[in-house]
Design goal:
With 349 residues, the protein is mainly β. It has a domain of 139 residues: TolB, C-terminal domain (Neuraminidase). The chain has one helix and 30 strands. The longest helix is centred in the N-terminal third of the chain and has 18 residues. It starts with a helix and ends with a strand. 42% of the residues are buried. The N terminus is likely disordered.
């Protein structure tokens, strides 16, 4: 789903919440963890604070066990999609407080909130470079949606793509030398790659079906992505030069949102099971595929803990809840546990 579609979905869902006064009651009890709890911090989006008589998303932070939940953005407008900088010293997020979508940054305590893009157009999908010095993003300031890059303080904003087709999902390579992204310049979505300066733009996936959601392996040698070349969405991998493309997921339905474990040995992804979605996990070669959450709720948006032991995710249980589960499927717990919509978790590095 492209950024504008995601934003529209958020607005629709929040409007529904305001009209129906969403209730999170009636969910099954959350199993109590039997051993240790997850460590670190998680930023996320929540609509629990009512501003201007309606639920409005804001950026929150909490300890990974669910304690110390705090509103960071503290603003009456829409703030969402938080993303930690690689060193954990700053948080980028999207804000609509200036009348349009802008990329802001702030400190982990909520101080120092600064509009980086400061442009009249929609600026979305921020992606930190591995060294934290630059941010790639998507903007429609020149008409269609193109990939831009700027310094981490908002200076030197530079357009990288000039295709005339919509571009999205910029993802830096681990060494910071390349950016994978999705381009519709060929009539349908394909995974492209370019140098960090915009040079050498090349169609990597180059298939007859739509390809999206590129994710670099931690060593930078492989890219996982989603492809519809077989009639439904599946998880594929390819070498960083586009060679050796292989289908990994084996579901006869839809699989999407692949995310590598920190050590690169496993991939977690979302799969449609009957009429709901579960998290699945597999080895990096596609073997040992297993249903991780295995419940009757819609589960999505997985993120790994830095040590690879836990996975945070979003589960629809009347409202959206942020859950945490061990990578082996044990010790599941509801960490946000509030009568509100909580989503878009990101674990601190």
């Amino acid at each position: 789903m492209r950024a504008p579609q995601k934003a529209a979905a958020v607005l629709i869902c929040l409007a529904a919440l305001a009209a129906s006064a969403c209730s999170c009651g009636g969910a099954e009890p959350t199993p109590t963890p039997t051993t240790s709890v997850p460590q670190g911090r998680i930023v996320f989006t929540s609509d629990r604070d009512i501003n201007v008589s309606a639920p409005v998303p804001e950026v929150y932070i909490m300890d990974a066990d669910g304690s110390n939940q705090t509103n960071l953005s503290q603003n009456a407008s829409f703030d969402w999609e938080p993303l930690w900088s690689p060193d954990g010293s700053r948080i980028a997020f999207i804000a609509k407080r200036d009348g349009n979508d802008e990329i802001y940054v702030m400190n982990p305590d909520g101080s120092g909130q600064t509009n980086l893009t400061n442009d009249a157009a929609a600026d979305l999908e921020p992606a930190w470079s591995p060294d934290g010095s630059r941010i790639a993003f998507v903007s429609d300031r020149d008409g269609d949606r193109e990939v831009y890059v700027m310094d981490a303080d908002g200076s030197d904003q530079t357009r990288l793509t000039h295709s005339g087709g919509n571009e999205s999902a910029p993802r830096w390579s681990p060494d910071g030398g390349s950016i994978a992204f999705v381009s519709e310049r060929d009539g349908q979505a394909q995974v492209y790659i370019m140098g960090a300066d915009g040079s050498g733009q090349t169609n990597l996936s180059n298939s007859a079906g739509g390809d999206s959601s590129p994710r670099w392996s931690p060593d930078g040698g492989t890219i996982a992505f989603v492809s519809e070349r077989d009639g439904q969405a599946d998880i594929y991998v390819m070498d960083a030069d586009g060679s050796d493309q292989q289908r990994l997921s084996t579901s006869y339905k839809w699989d999407w949102d692949p995310l590598w474990s920190p050590d690169g040995s496993r991939i977690v992804f979302v799969s449609l099971v009957e009429d709901y979605t579960d998290l699945f996990i597999m080895d990096a070669d596609g073997s040992n595929q297993a249903n991780l959450t295995g419940d009757s709720y819609n589960d999505d948006s997985p993120v790994w803990s830095p040590d690879g032991d836990w996975i945070a995710y979003v589960s629809w249980r009347g409202c959206k809840e942020i859950m945490a589960i061990r990578a082996d499927g044990s010790d599941r717990l509801n960490v946000s546990d509030r009568p509100s919509w909580d989503w878009q978790p990101t674990w601190a590095p």
